Amino acid sequence: MKNLILFIILGMLTLISCSKDDTTTDATINKKPITRTKDGTVYSYTYDGNKIIQCIDNNADHYIKKWVYTYTGDLITKEDIYTNNVLQKSYEHTYENNKIATSIVKDYSTSSIYQSKSVYTYNTDTTVDRQIYSYGTNTWVKSRSVKYTILNGHITIEKILGTTDGSPSYTTVFEYDTKNNVFKNVLGFDKLIYKTDNERDDTKFNTINNITKYYSTPSYGELNFTFNYDTDGYPISKTWYNGNSISTETYTYQ
User: Fold this and answer.
1) How far apart are CA 183 and CA 208, in angstroms?
2) Nearest to 118 by CA among 146, 81, 151
3) Which domain holds residue 136?
4) Within a domain: residue 25?
5) Which helix (H) or strand (E) holds 224?
6) Are strands 75-83 and 114-122 parallel, antiparallel or unpaired?
C-alpha cells in the first residue's frame, strides 16, 4: 500500500513538472549578450560579473556611440551616453525600497544643458505613476505624466496622460512570450521602468520575458515580433515589419 501511494505521488509530481511552462529556470545558465546586431549595426557589451559596464555601437556612418553604466551596489545609478567620446546625455537614478524613485536626465547636446526629471509613485492597484518635470527659470515645472500597469513583473499598459485633465492621450498595450529575455541576467535592468535610449529597445520595460506585440491608440497601430530561441530558451533572433521592410535583430552570448 505504501509503495502504491508513493507511486501515485511521484506520478502527480511528474505531471505537474511536465505541465509547467518551458521557460528555462536553471540558475546555472547565466547567459548575457555580448553582441546585438540590428539591421547591420553591431552593439558590443562588456560586463563585470553580472554588472554591465558599457555598450558600444560602431555605426556604419563612422561615428561611435557608447553607453557607460555606473552602479551603487546592484543598482544602476547612472547611465552616460557618448558620441565619439563626447558626452551627449546622462541619466541619474535614485531608489527607495529597491525600486526606482527618481530619474534626472541631462542633455548636453544643446548650447544650454536641458534637464528633465521623472518621479515615481507606486500605487496599491498594480499601477505606477510617473510624473515628468522640466527644468526652467531655476525651478522644476510639472509636465506630462505617465501611468503604467504592471502584472507579473511586466508593464502591460502605458498611458501617456494629458497635462490638463489627466485623461489618456496615448495608450500602448504590451504582450509577452514566456521565454528568457536577452538581458535577464544583467543586474539592475529590471529596475529601470522606461528605456533611456534605443540600445535597449528590445527590452523595453522588462527583463524577464520578451515583448511579442504592442499596439497603440489612437494612431500608431500594431507591431508584432517573431523570435527564434536557442535550446535554453533565450532569443537568438527577432524579426518584425517596421512599416517599410522587415527588420532583423540577432544576439550572441558569452
Assistant:
1) 8
2) 146
3) 30-253
4) no
5) strand 221-224
6) unpaired
Decide: 141 and 156 in contact? Cβ < 8 Å.
no
Whole-angstrom Cα distance, residue 133 to residue 135? 7
Report yes or no: 126 and 157 within 8 Å, Cβ to Cβ.
no
Element (H, E) at 9: helix 2-19
- Is position 197 within any domain? yes
Q: 205, 194 in Cβ contact below 8 A? A: yes
C-alpha count within 13 angstroms, C-beta hemisphere, residue 72: 11
Cell numbers representing residue 253 in the block? 552570448
Is 172 in contact with 203 (CB distance < 8 Å)?
A: no
CA distance 21 to 12: 16
What is the DSSP code (8-state) at residue 243? Answer: S
pLDDT value of position 32? 94
Question: Domain holding 236: CATH number?
Answer: 2.40.160.150
| Grid coordinates belonging to 210 | 520578451
Q: Quick one: pLDDT at residue 165? A: 64
pLDDT at 152: 85
Tens-digit pLDDT profile for residues 132-157: 998 877 889 888 899 999 988 889 99
Residues of the chain with confidence (pLDDT) below 70 = 1-28, 59-62, 163-166, 195-206
- What SS3 class is residue 2? helix
Contact 205, 174 (CB under 8 A): yes
pLDDT of residue 10: 36
* CA 253/CA 237 separation, integer angstroms: 12
- The CA distance from 233 to 227, in Å, is 10
